[in-house]
Write a sequence for this structure.
């Protein structure tokens, strides 16, 4: 039986898909309720839920999940090849689906991959990834616009100047935000309580001492 959260997620996802298909079919833009997270970006979030369910709740059907993600990746890429004008519209969805496919394929190798040195840096960032998610947007927007207004434009200028500066600031400030705010709300594992042995009566101690003589 489908649970209420799964049913709600399915209905919202189908509703977003239907509105987008309807808008493309009849030539009008579907309603994009910014701030409510049920615009097109919900579909990328739904792929994350799909990966989580495939790994933790439907592990026996992981192969079918991989096939489905591969099929979606193929269809999205094929649509952009056949109709290049859809590239701007479908690119973000293609990235999310391909990334979901990689997560499903590489999941059995999580242990060996986590021991690789290049991946350990990602593990460190993962500790405060939610703080990074909250902090990075205003930093990138503010400094990106500032550099743009001062003539730092173009692909290589962005890659060599803007990206390193904004990435470094985002990491530093998000780590600070983690230590000051986020870590105070994390659920820490309770320390194992050592069960203290009940005291032995004096009479039993005397009997044990006499028996040992």
């Amino acid at each position: 039986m489908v649970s209420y959260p799964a049913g709600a997620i399915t209905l919202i996802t189908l509703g977003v898909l239907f509105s987008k298909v309807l808008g493309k079919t009849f030539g009008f833009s579907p309603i994009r309720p910014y701030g409510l997270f049920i615009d097109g970006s919900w579909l990328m979030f739904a792929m994350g839920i799909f990966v989580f369910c495939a790994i933790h709740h439907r592990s026996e059907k992981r192969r079918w999940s991989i096939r489905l993600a591969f099929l979606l990746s193929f269809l999205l890429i094929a649509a952009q090849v056949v109709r290049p004008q859809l590239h701007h519209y479908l690119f973000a969805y293609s990235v999310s689906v391909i990334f979901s496919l990689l997560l499903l394929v590489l999941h059995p190798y999580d242990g060996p991959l986590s021991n690789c040195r290049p991946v350990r840096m990602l593990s460190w960032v993962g500790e405060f990834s939610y703080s990074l998610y909250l902090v990075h947007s205003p930093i990138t927007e503010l400094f990106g616009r500032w550099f743009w207004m001062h003539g730092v434009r173009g692909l290589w200028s962005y890659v060599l100047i803007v990206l390193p500066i904004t990435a470094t600031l985002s990491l530093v400030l998000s780590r600070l935000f983690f230590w000051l705010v986020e870590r105070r709300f994390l659920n820490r594992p309770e320390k194992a309580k050592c069960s203290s042995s009940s005291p032995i009566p004096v009479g039993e101690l005397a009997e044990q001492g006499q028996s040992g003589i």
